[in-house]
Amino acid sequence: AQSVAQPEDQVNVAEGNPLTVKCTYSVSGNPYLFWYVQYPNRGLQFLLKYITGDNLVKGSYGFEAEFNKSQTSFHLKKPSALVSDSALYFCAVRDMEAGNNRKLIWGLGTSLAVNP
Amino acid sequence: GAGVSQSPSNKVTEKGKDVELRCDPISGHTALYWYRQSLGQGLEFLIYFQGNSAPDKSGLPSDRFSAERTGGSVSTLTIQRTQQEDSAVYLCASSPHPTSGEQFFGPGTRLTVL
Fold this sequence. Notes:
The complex is a heterodimer. Chain A is mostly beta strands. Chain A has a single domain (3-115), classed as Immunoglobulins (Immunoglobulin-like, Sandwich), CATH 2.60.40.10. Chain A has strands spanning 3-5, 10-14, 19-21, 24-26, 33-38, 44-50, 56-58, 64-68, 73-78, 87-94, 104-106, 110-115. In chain A, a hairpin with a 5-residue loop joins strand 5 and strand 6. Chain A is globular and about 45 Å long. In chain A, 36% of the residues are buried. By secondary structure, chain B is mainly β. Chain B has no helices and ten strands. In chain B, strands 2, 4, 5, 8, 9 and 10 form a six-stranded mixed beta sheet that branches. Chains A and B meet through strand 6 and strand 10 of A and strand 5, strand 8 and strand 9 of B.
């Protein structure tokens, strides 16, 4: 079955330190992978996506994500965290089942807290 | 430009009442999605509209839930005979190219059923 896993419910980092939010997936074929962010009391915003090409993709607000096919992972990273990065982060993968490819399969989200 | 808008932003209703939630997608976006997000939970897919095609209703949790999209633009999600477990934030998203996966979300409607 297709799935997305975000193994950490919460990640805590100190401001200025690097951060990683983990995501692993299980789909058939070549995955389309996405990260979205939900700031407090706001709607979800698209951060970045991987479809093909370089395994390291860069997105908004200084975030990047690394696609690792052998580990079926797509971890979100940022070299230096800001307090304002504190939010809920969702990983998603395009549903690859026939007839469903306009839908995303979502992880349960990881709450990132950046401490000053 | 204008993003996805949803109304109302908050709705408090009594158990057993019907509610209607509205979504105005970004102009020109052919795809429209409804999701439900319960407190501390991920996104639960409800329904998907694409152009004039029949909607994908596979995520609707019960026959009390229905949605329509008029003229390929505005969408209304209706919940009949609301129950306390329907309390959640209902999110709408639109997309210009649904196969690309990038969706643009509205701010959501927070529904509280007393």
